[in-house]
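User: Fold this; tokens only.

Assistant: Input:
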Amino acid sequence: MRVPQLRMEATYARLAISTTPARLDITQPPAELTIAQPPAEMNIASVPARLTIDQSRAWAAMNNKHVFEFIRDGAEDGRQAVLNYIARTASQGDELMRIENGGNPIVDQAVVNSEDPPLEFNIAFVPPPFSVKIGYEPGRLDIDWHIQPPRIDVKRHEPIIHYQRGAVRIDLAQHPSLRIDVVI
């Protein structure tokens, strides 16, 4: 005897999945940057150095004077000669006033008045040492800075974002089925 058999055929369901990917676009516009650097202010104050050289004594020692100095020196020498003459005459007059005290004042005065003073002879350096006077005042330099900070201006821009949503579509590509046959 034959036993009936069951034959089953099954078809599974099949899904069809289609996707549209999401899209994200981001653009970042550059920032606007403005930089200004004001120049530094500098103030300079200076007092120049001063060098003085006085060589008038050296020129005078070499007898190379200005005409006004010659006149002034001659006047001073003449004044001194007059004062010396007055002093000598007064002294000799006093000696003659006291002639009764003894001595021989007339002969002594005649000897003194007839002889010139002895000449001086000496070795001298022309110009004499240290006759040139040098003076120096140092200069001064003051520098004053006023530094200005830079001015920076930044204008930023927001990013531009474009977003397109993605999609997933699921369809049933094949329906499931079950077929049963009885075979004898």
